[in-house]
Design brief:
The complex is a heterodimer. Chain A has a domain of 70 residues. Chain A contains 11 helices and 2 strands. Chain B is built from 15 helices and 23 strands. In chain B, the strands form 6 sheets. In chain B, strands 1, 2, 3, 4, 5 and 6 form a 6-stranded antiparallel sheet that branches. Chain B has a 5-stranded antiparallel sheet with strand order 22-15-17-16-23, with helices on one face. Chain B has a 4-stranded antiparallel sheet with strand order 7-14-9-12. In chain B, helix 5 packs antiparallel against helix 6. The chains are: A mainly alpha, B alpha+beta.
């Protein structure tokens, strides 16, 4: 039986590169492995690992930078935007080329590439055209335009963040010799360990959590996004309904609305409907409608609580990871500045 | 590049043009206000064969070449030639149009690709009517419509018949024979053209509008077998020797004009042509039957497979997940609900309104799974028969040359007709763009998470005090219709590009089902969210 999880998080070339980088570094250090129980050590080792730590940290921060630059529209990709008219003119040129290939039969890939340079003129910053060979040899290849994605997908940056982050943590420990005797050493080493642990936990939870949430959503026949919307919708409708009720009947129904548990809700609803103010048909029907809404609201709220709890479980690690990351970056900057100054 | 004459005094009197002579004063005024004169240089191409309709005016003062494609044009001076390239690669001149003659009515009526390439032979002046204006004039019975129809029978019909697969190979003299006996029929929206089970007696060609073919299901529902828009045909089975009954009822989806070619007329053709037509009809009928066995399965391979294909077809079409192209799919085994997709969608749109909707069909492949595996999000399917485009009376929705449905916000007034017409809830209305957006809205601090709360926006100006935005046609804009535009013009599709877990993707639904079929043993379940 296959594992129901996002295993793509563990399949990355960056893992290999990070491992190779670590091996290379150790090799460069001439296998002068640090001994945690000894403070101090060779100056060269400290300097070399210090530079390596700094480089790894910058790579790790690249993910965050990439994410926020895009979200805040500071990413240079936005300046590449071409107008719709240019895009449509390109489509027309590409269609003309397809037609030409169809009429003249297959051509060498090099010749097609040369033609494509003219076809993509003006839009080459935003897209590229892939040449896919046709299964039928007598047919010309397919020309498929794809977005250029100049900086690569965020998923790849996450892989880099993950594996170079691990490398960073190892390098911090090597650089500081896992020494806890100074305040800065203590904090930097501890934070590196904490970041590694929370990051590792986070990746595991991100790999397995979505299936868990999806299973709960299927059980409730409600997605977490829907639950949010329905909860707000029912609440607004109940408030409108309560406002439309007669002032004599409203307090009884308002009491039901405040019920905490399911048995409490059922008992209060039964009790409310037995009151003399609900003996007539019309107020009783009105009250029943609102009680149905309250029942639906309670069901959605219960589902949302469970779904939200699951989501919190696999997202909560970030509340430790992110502040720790900010702290370690600040301390590292302080450390670099102090080393450079003194 | 065409230019608009500077002075209106140099423009010809429109009342002198025979086509417009029957118009009333109000219609003539509308024509003067909305139609545009365009000067064309020798060799300039108005529209190429196979191009889709493009937008109406984007600049009120000066018409650009690309804006004029797909319009209805009347030649006021000079000559315009129509060329058509056949499937065998031969190009021939269909006709030369001079003063008072026109072209582009089929494209203007139906937003369909042009049947021919139109090119200016020497400098010429044309009057160009946008689809909205043309539809308005053509929609009223009168001389204008009568002239267009008569002209169509004389000139356009031969071309239209030639584009139908059934008649493509007929010799010229026999095509002329058909032309004289073809009947014109118009149907209102929802009119039943033919009923399922009845014997097919005619071949139908769609001149404008849209037709769907539906089969009644035992549970009272209906299964869609196909759509037919302009330049397509149905009823070829009437020529087939074995099965002549209609496999489904054909219903007009909007006001539709059809050309009817009765079987009796086809029987009058020469023996050689009849045999050729019959062979072609049987091929077309077999192709249609093949499609019915399943969009994902190809040829039938036993009862079980046919049933599975029918189930998939049912899901993908009736449950609104596939109308061609690629679907936006969220893998629920990977999605951590971080909302990066929506945030990035917000980031790429100037109005800060996300186009992405996570509503859709959740699919579970029953290979021991207890959770939904995929969410087929409700993204624009660029329908073969786009209800939104047909419903828009303001020229704000069009197809581009790739076949994608595009919104032209200069023309959109927020009437919500497209929202109602879209069967998939893809289009949403947002507040109209403010005529004077505050310059501070793009400041650095307001973009930062959390910190932006320290730099609140100034209190919104009361709508009454602010100048109301207007469309290119000068109409007040009530709202703005938005839908996924595939991040047009940018080097990425934001949601796919920015997902940290590779959870969101654009895939061919057919491929998705085929990939999962083996492990799920062909069964699946779904929920609409």
């Amino acid at each position: 039986m296959s594992i129901r999880a996002n295993l793509t998080l563990f399949r990355s070339l960056h893992a290999l590169f990070a491992a190779l980088a670590l091996v290379a570094l150790l090799f460069a250090l001439g296998f002068e492995l640090p001994r945690p129980w000894h403070s101090g050590g060779a100056h060269a080792l400290t300097v070399r690992t210090g530079w390596a730590v700094l480089a790894a940290m910058l790579v790790v921060l690249g993910y965050v930078l990439r994410k926020y630059m895009h979200k805040l529209r500071y990413s240079p990709e936005f300046r590449h935007k071409v107008s719709l008219a240019e895009l449509e003119a390109f489509d027309q040129r590409l269609n003309d080329l397809r037609l030409e290939l169809l009429k003249q039969g297959p051509r060498e890939e090099r010749a097609i590439r040369a033609r494509l340079r003219d076809v993509t003129a003006g839009v080459e910053r935003v897209l590229r055209v892939e040449i896919e060979p046709s299964q039928d040899a007598s047919q010309p290849p397919r020309l498929v335009p794809r977005p250029r994605e100049p900086f690569g997908r965020t998923a790849r940056w996450l892989h880099a963040h993950l594996y170079y982050g691990l490398l960073f943590a190892v390098l911090v420990l090597v650089h500081g010799r896992a020494g806890l005797h100074s305040a800065l050493g203590f904090w930097l080493n501890s934070l590196a360990v904490l970041l590694t642990l929370t990051g590792g936990l986070g990746i595991l939870l991100w790999a397995f959590g979505p299936t868990w949430l999806s299973r709960a959503e299927r059980r409730h026949r409600l997605s977490i996004e829907q639950a949010f919307v329905f909860r707000r919708h029912y609440r607004a409708k109940i408030k409108l309904g309560l406002a439309a009720l007669d002032p004599l009947t409203r307090p009884a129904i308002a009491q039901v609305w405040k019920a905490r548990s399911a048995p409490d809700f059922a008992a209060r609803a039964r009790l409310a409907l037995q009151g003399p103010e609900f003996s007539a048909d019309e107020p009783r029907a009105q009250a029943q409608e609102i009680l149905v809404l309250i029942g639906q609201y309670r069901r959605v709220r219960a589902a949302l609580r469970e779904l939200w709890r699951i989501r919190m479980v696999f997202m909560a690690w970030r509340y430790v990871h992110i502040p720790c990351a900010i702290l370690i970056v600040g301390l590292a900057a302080l450390h670099v500045l102090s080393v450079w100054r003194y | 590049m065409p230019e608009r004459p500077e002075a209106s005094s140099s423009s010809p009197d429109l009342g002198q043009v025979p086509l417009f002579s029957g118009l009333g004063p109000a219609e003539k005024k509308k024509l003067r206000d909305e139609a545009r004169y365009s000067l064309w240089k020798d060799g300039e191409v108005f529209v190429r064969q196979g191009e889709f309709t493009l937008s109406s005016w984007t600049d009120a003062a000066l018409a650009r070449e690309e804006d004029l494609k797909g319009h209805f044009h009347v030649v006021l001076s000079g000559t315009v030639s129509a060329y058509r390239t056949e499937s065998d690669g031969r190009t021939r001149v269909l006709e030369s149009l001079r003063y008072g003659q026109w072209f582009g009515e089929v494209s203007a009526l139906s937003n369909q690709p042009s049947l021919a390439t139109l090119r200016a032979e020497g400098p010429c002046l044309t009057l160009s009517l946008g689809p909205r204006l043309f539809k308005g004039l053509y929609g009223r019975p009168g001389d204008f419509r009568r002239r267009i129809d008569e002209n169509y029978r004389e000139r356009g019909l031969a071309l239209h018949l030639r584009t139908a697969p059934l008649f493509r190979e007929l010799p010229e003299n026999e095509l002329a024979q058909l032309r004289s006996q073809v009947r014109f029929q118009s149907f209102a929206s929802n009119d039943v053209i033919v009923r399922e089970g009845e014997e097919a007696e005619s071949v139908y060609l769609v001149r404008s509008g849209a037709v769907k073919s539906v089969r009644a299901l035992p549970d009272g529902g209906e299964q869609i077998l196909g759509y037919y828009m302009s330049n397509s045909s149905f009823g070829e089975s009437c020529l087939a020797t074995d099965e002549r009954a209609w496999r489904g009822s054909h219903v007009a989806m909007m006001p539709t004009d059809l050309l009817v070619v009765p079987r009796a007329v086809l029987e009058q053709l020469t023996q050689e042509s009849r045999s050729s037509l019959r062979l072609r009809a049987e091929l077309i009928a077999a192709e249609e039957r093949g499609l019915e066995t399943g969009v994902f399965g190809g040829a039938a391979g036993g009862e079980e497979r046919a049933q599975r294909n029918a189930q998939e077809l049912e899901f993908m079409v009736k449950k609104q997940s596939a109308k061609g192209g690629e679907a936006l799919v969220i893998d629920l085994e990977r999605c951590v609900r971080c909302n990066a997709c929506v945030e990035s969608c917000v980031a790429v749109h100037e109005d800060r309104v996300p186009r992405l909707s996570k509503k859709g069909n959740r699919v579970a492949f029953e290979g021991g799974e207890s959770h939904h595996r995929y969410n087929l999000a409700t993204s624009c399917y660029n329908c073969q028969v786009p209800g939104c485009m047909m419903a828009c009376n303001f020229g704000a929705i069009r197809r581009d040359v790739q076949g994608l449905i595009r919104f032209d916000y200069k023309n959109c007034i927020g009437c919500a007709m497209c929202v109602e017409a879209c069967p998939y809830d893809v289009i949403r209305l947002t507040p109209p763009p403010r005529a004077s957006a505050p310059a501070e809205s793009t400041s650095f601090w307001r973009r930062l998470p959390l910190l932006n709360r320290l730099f609140p926006y100034p209190t919104a100006t009361a709508p009454a005090e602010e100048a109301r935005p207007t469309s290119a046609a000068g109409l007040p804009v009530e709202a703005k219709a938005v839908k996924c535009d595939l991040c047009a013009g940018l080097p990425f599709q934001a949601c796919v590009y920015n997902c940290p877990c590779n959870a969101i993707m654009r895939v061919n639904p057919k491929q998705l089902f085929e990939d999962r079929r083996a492990e799920s043993q062909g069964t699946f379940s779904y929920t609409r969210t």
